[in-house]
Design brief:
Layout: H1 2-37, H2 41-53, H3 58-74, H4 78-91, H5 98-112, H6 115-132, H7 140-156, H8 160-173, H9 180-245, H10 267-293
Length: about 300
């Protein structure tokens, strides 16, 4: 009888202690929520952590550490948040918060610059929700946000066409999403970037083409200058021969000497042929000048 009385008294003390701990847990938890909702995230994390430490069940522990993680994310303590996520996965791998942790871990990876890893986790989150939830309307905003952040990963990596697909998906499928406006902005920004890239490529091509045209022009001018000099030399030889034979010397326009004219050819015949070649050369030079002055290409 005495043993039974002692046992009952001991059980009552334990129950009272448990009830007291549970009351303290709830108080700390409620305090944490109030602080979190008023953006006092550091203080909220402290309250949630205290609730976690005195939690009596795995469910209470999971709920408290979940809010610890959200608080840490709110004030950008990503290292501590990742450690607590790992702890949650270890202690309660099948908790109701595990799926949400896929999304939050992906956000942390994005903020830390691990864009490929973030992409995979956002995809896993969407697949998990789509597989295990029947009422997807309840998760529409979070799914839309996941698609948006996948677009942000690709956008940050410079894969604009792929990013635009995710932004457009949110615009078309989730018109009520809070991410709707920023997705529209991103699509317009991508279009602008494409136009800028095309203009830049066009300007670069135009510049390179101008350089090539200029170089070709200068090369052709040098060829004609050489040809004219050669013509003048040979013409001087022929006209010199004309003066020796008594034939009047006439100043001949610049031109190239035909290859079949020799110094011992009939001077008058050579002279006429030279005039014809001079006319052709002048026409070529005039055309080159016109093309150069008015933007023609060679």
């Amino acid at each position: 009888m005495i043993f039974l009385t002692v046992f009952l008294l001991f059980s009552a003390d334990i129950l009272a202690a448990q009830e007291s701990n549970q009351a303290i847990y709830l108080q700390k938890y409620q305090n944490g929520l109030q602080l979190y909702n008023t953006s006092h995230w550091h203080e909220a994390a402290i309250e949630f952590r205290r609730a976690q430490e005195i939690s009596a069940t795995v469910g209470d522990w999971s709920r408290a550490i979940y809010w610890v993680i959200l608080s840490e994310l709110a004030y950008s303590d990503y290292g501590s948040a990742l450690l607590d996520m790992d702890e949650l996965d270890k202690i309660a791998p099948n908790s109701s918060y595990s799926r949400d942790m896929l999304y939050h871990r992906a956000r942390v990876y994005f903020n830390l610059g691990y864009f490929d890893d973030a992409l995979l986790l956002f995809r896993r989150y969407i697949d998990a929700v789509s597989t295990f939830e029947t009422n997807l309307d309840e998760f529409a905003d979070r799914i839309a946000a996941a698609y948006f952040w996948m677009g942000e990963c690709l956008y940050t990596m410079g894969q604009f066409d792929e990013a635009q697909k995710f932004y457009t998906w949110v615009i078309d499928r989730y018109p009520e999403s809070p991410k709707q406006e920023v997705c529209i902005y991103r699509v317009e920004l991508i279009k602008q970037k494409k136009i800028e890239a095309e203009l830049l490529a066009l300007l670069q091509w135009s510049h390179e083409e101008s350089l090539r045209t200029s170089e070709d022009y200068q090369r052709r001018i040098r060829v004609y200058e050489y040809t004219l000099n050669e013509y003048q030399r040979r013409l001087a030889e022929i006209t010199s021969g004309q003066s020796r034979t008594g034939t009047p010397v006439t100043v001949v326009p610049l031109d190239i000497i035909p290859a079949d004219i020799q110094e011992d050819d009939d001077p008058q015949s050579a002279y006429q042929r030279l005039l014809e070649w001079a006319r052709q050369l002048i026409m070529v030079l005039d055309q080159m000048i016109i093309e150069r002055e008015y933007g023609g290409s060679f």
